[in-house]
Write a structure and sequence with these properties.
Order of helices and strands: HHHHHHH
Distance between the termini: 51 Å
Oligomer: single chain
Structural class: mainly alpha
Number of helices: 7
Number of strands: 0
Radius of gyration: 15 Å
Helix content: 55-70%
Length: 129
């Protein structure tokens, strides 16, 4: 008898709708709160394309559909950020918005506890200053 498969983080989060809600809340926070102004300044005025890209990327990163890698504008995640001077301040602003988005979207606390270190590792990986 086979053991039941462990659900992916994508499934545990709630699938496509939950990932998109998380990403939307992340960008809403980044756009409305003056605290991450330096992070916001790196983005275009219209956040819609970035919302779509990050949602597709996060879906794949969390073990869900790999739509990001089927996009014609796909870049390696690190390469996509290489043109920006990303330091600890920007990393921390990104993480603050993402952690708040997790809380605001009602992510299960146990799942949030699993996601926080992975997100921190990801954000630190993008630092180049």
């Amino acid at each position: 008898m086979n053991a039941p498969a462990t659900p992916t983080l994508y499934a545990a989060l709630g699938g496509d709708a939950a990932v998109r809600a998380l990403v939307d809340r992340f960008y809403d926070l980044m756009d409305a709160d003056p605290a991450p102004a330096a992070l916001r300044s790196l983005h275009a005025a219209d956040l819609a394309p970035m919302r779509s890209k990050l949602a597709d990327w996060m879906s794949a990163w969390l073990g869900g559909p790999q739509h990001y890698f089927q996009r014609p504008d796909t870049l390696c995640f690190r390469a996509a950020h290489s043109g920006f001077a990303i330091d600890a301040t920007l990393r921390d602003q990104w993480l603050d918005c993402m952690y708040r988005a997790l809380a605001d979207t009602g992510t299960d606390r146990a799942l949030e506890a699993r996601l926080r270190p992975a997100l921190a590792e990801l954000a630190d990986f993008l630092r180049n200053r």
